[in-house]
């Protein structure tokens, strides 16, 4: 494949979109407790002047995690009833193969609605400990539209009620 021109790259970046940048305060990879990132004026580190934005691949991780962390129907009142995933319906279920397989089905269903994904290359849902406890890992590899390299990310999910 030949290298992309600057114009082709600019079109691709617009297709992936721009969003407000989020800072996830939890432990690395937990994708919890997000807060908006302030943009700072160059040379004035202590003074936020606006909200920061993100685009390209960093934006992609954020929009994919947001889609999976949102319960389907949660944004229905805002006109987006299909946005999100149904795997949250499985909270309280035992961490067994059947539950993990349903999580995978629901996650794949949610990602199928994401127009910026060209192809889902792999999706694995597995217990994080033996014997299985309440947490599973959702390990995903996707190919974003117009990108040559796959994007890998992991989203943990707790089956614990109230967890």
Task: Give your account of this protein's structure.
With 163 residues, the protein is an alpha+beta fold. It has one domain: Nuclear Transport Factor 2, Chain: A (Roll). Helix content is 25%, strand content 29%. It contains 3 helices and 9 strands, in the order αββββββααβββ. The chain has helices spanning 6-16, 56-69, 97-112; strands at residues 18-20, 22-24, 34-36, 38-40, 48-51, 53-55, 117-127, 135-144, 151-158. The chain has a 3-stranded antiparallel beta sheet. Strands 1-6 form a two-stranded antiparallel ribbon. A two-stranded antiparallel sheet has the order 2-3. The N and C termini lie far apart (46 Å). The mean pLDDT is 85.
| Overall number of structural domains | 1
- Unreliable spans: none
Question: Mind telling me the C-alpha Rg?
Answer: 18 Å
Report the sheet-strand fraction.
Answer: 25-35%
Q: What is the succession of H and E elements?
A: HEEEEEEHHEEE
- Helical element count? 3
Helices, strands, pairings?
Blueprint: H1 6-16, E1 18-20, E2 22-24, E3 34-36, E4 38-40, E5 48-51, E6 53-55, H2 56-69, H3 97-112, E7 117-127, E8 135-144, E9 151-158
Helix pairs in contact: 1-2
């Amino acid at each position: 494949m030949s290298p992309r021109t600057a114009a082709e790259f600019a079109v691709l970046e617009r297709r992936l979109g721009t969003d407000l940048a989020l800072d996830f305060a939890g432990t690395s990879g937990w994708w919890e407790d997000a807060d908006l990132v302030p943009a700072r004026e160059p040379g004035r580190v202590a003074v936020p002047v606006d909200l920061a934005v993100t685009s390209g691949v960093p934006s992609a991780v954020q929009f994919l995690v947001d889609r999976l962390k949102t319960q389907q129907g949660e944004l229905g009142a805002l006109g987006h009833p299909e946005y999100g995933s149904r795997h949250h319906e499985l909270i309280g279920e035992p961490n067994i193969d059947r539950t993990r397989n349903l999580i995978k089905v629901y996650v794949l269903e949610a990602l199928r609605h994401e127009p910026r994904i060209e192809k889902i290359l792999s999706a694995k849902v597995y217990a994080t400990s033996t014997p299985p406890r309440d947490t599973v890992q959702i390990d995903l590899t996707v190919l974003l539209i117009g990108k040559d390299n796959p994007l890998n990310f992991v989203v943990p999910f707790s089956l614990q009620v109230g967890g």
